[in-house]
Amino acid sequence: MPIALPASAVTPAKPAVVRTERGFEIAVFQHGDAYFAIANRCPHQGAPLAQGVCDGEVVICPYHHFKYDLRTGRCRFPRHLKVATFPVVRTGAELAIDASAAPNPSAPNPD
After folding, report:
1. Which domains does the chain have, with CATH numbers?
2. DSSP-assigned beta bridge partners for residue 27
């Protein structure tokens, strides 16, 4: 089931954070008429990406300034880092975030 969020809760200057039923945080950003949803945790040292600065379709991590593409989740440098992305659909005044692929943060790490 998608996560519903009022579109008014997200502005270009203020992303929103939503949680899945299992407690995984997703940051939702707006750039122009487009909305993007990514994991709210930088894989480098866990910084909350929703607290970062948005520069177009890139969010800059607040801890070490790593830049993540909001469309792909790929870090510009170092390229091996990536955050999960989630589809966002706007219908009227509502956003629906498909978080079905969100991991379970309490599950044991398979590595």
Report:
1. 3-97 (2.102.10.10)
2. 17, 38
- CA neighbours within 13 Å on the CB side: how many for 8? 2
Laid out side by side, the sheet with 3-6 consists of 3-6, 94-97, 88-91
Q: pTM of the predicted model, to two decimals?
A: 0.92
pLDDT digits (tens, 9 = 90+) for 13-62: 999 999 999 999 999 999 999 999 999 999 999 999 999 999 999 999 99
- If phi over 0 gives left and psi between -120 and 50 gives alpha, with beta otherwise, what is residue 51? alpha
pLDDT for res 107: 60
Using alpha carbons, select from 63, 103, 111 the residue that is nearest to residue 86.
103
Q: Which of 3, 50, 47 is nearest to 23 (CA)?
A: 3
